[in-house]
Design goal:
The complex is a heterodimer of chains A (307) and B (154).
Chain A lengths: L2 E5 L13 E5 L3 H11 L3 E4 L18 E4 L9 E3 L3 E5 L4 H8 L6 H9 L3 H4 L4 H6 L8 H7 L3 E5 L5 E4 H7 L8 E8 L4 E8 L7 E11 L5 E9 L6 E2 L1 H7 L6 H11 L13 H6 L1 H14 L9
Helix pairs in contact in A: 2-3, 8-9, 9-11
Chain B lengths: L4 E5 L2 E5 L7 H8 L18 E4 L2 E4 L12 E3 L12 H8 L9 H14 L5 H7 L11 H13 L1
Parallel strand pairs in B: 1-5
Antiparallel strand pairs in B: 1-2, 3-4, 3-5
The chains are: A alpha+beta (307), B alpha+beta (154).
Amino acid sequence: MERRLTDQTESSDAMQAPASRSVYIAPSLPAALDALDEGGAAAAPFAGGTWIMRAPIRHEPLKSLYVAIGKIPELRAIKVDADAVEVGAAVTHAALAATLAELAEFDVLTAAASRSANPAIRTMATIGGNLATTAFAAADCVPALLCLDADVEIASRGGPERTSLERFLTMRSTLAPGRLLHRIIVPRRGRRTVHARLPLRQAGDYPTAIVSLAVSLDEAGHVRTARVAVGSVEPVARRWQRLEHALVGHPLNAAKATDAAAELAGEFTGRDSPDVPAWYRVRVLPALVRRAVAALGSGAVGDEHGH
Amino acid sequence: MNMGIDLTVNGDHLTSTSDPVTPLVDVLREEFHLTGAKPVCREGFCGACMVLIDGDPTPSCLVPAALANGCDIRTVEGLAANGGLNPIQAALEACDAVQCGMCFPGMVVSLTHLVSTRPDATREDIRAALTGNICRCTGYERIIEAALLALATA
């Protein structure tokens, strides 16, 4: 259904002050791009809404136009091929976890999508929102996709643009109006992967720190390739390349990986917050590395969770 | 001009004239006077505003009214069929699990969905289903016992 719902009245809530707001429910990707382009800086895409709807709590103004993208079929699709998995930006965490559950090489992403927040939120929150929300440092799927070497495709009236997720994270806050994260492309390389996270409570909480790990082993059982990504510690998730180098060429060994992580953790500068001091986020990294590597060694998923 | 937002709430066809970005919980409470859902955290953490939207438990604080257009919404006020308590409501009463009215409506909504969709749910499944429903005054054990009773007798 294509419909624009508008309101011209003044809100009584000072935190939601715009005199005119509207929501356009886009029926297709071209329609969404047109609306975003025409809306300019006053418009923004609206996917799951779990971040945008909390804007008043953060004392942030709402946009005057939201373009709802959650009903666009191609943005809700997951395509599993032999070489790659393509995930539409409006795929929810729950849908992603359900689709990837039987694909062991994506354990890291399945865990990220299935352990964040709570069940109801996971049916709303989207993968695109997780990647595009600049101010959300604790997004689980960002480090998971970094360690999987994911690319993203950005759509606009001018055509699609593909770039690495790493690069997207550096440009997402300055994306020009009218550009929309369309899909995420994750290569299939038969790696062993794991997502280790530490929330303050067992479940339903943001992780204090996240370590996502993807490795491939040679015939001798030594690490041939390793990608490690750290989330929630700094404002933006990033790879831990020095630890990757320390792992390559050696057998997977939790104790040695922990020692290496402890030696290298000083390169991180933790972010401070009311619930978790900056130093603590860095301090727990070696323990998360140990759990991740140990889980890979045993073949189990090393996600710190519980309900 | 506001086009109006059409909703089916507890079987009644209603039209909202609210701002399209207004959280659904505020439409339900302020416009339709259905005050069972509570706007407590407004962040999707506490579950006090949980309602069923097209059958799925959803924190109504995070749903803009415009995106509820055309949806079937069931609040805690609409869970008792034909004036009788549904299985989880009856079990909660039988187990003396009724707590204060702040978190409890959301608990009832989440568990109504669980009991109706997961007849084989275990204690761990119940705990998982309540991850997004937080009680800060009493606890969960009697609620879990009631859910197990409802599953056993449903």
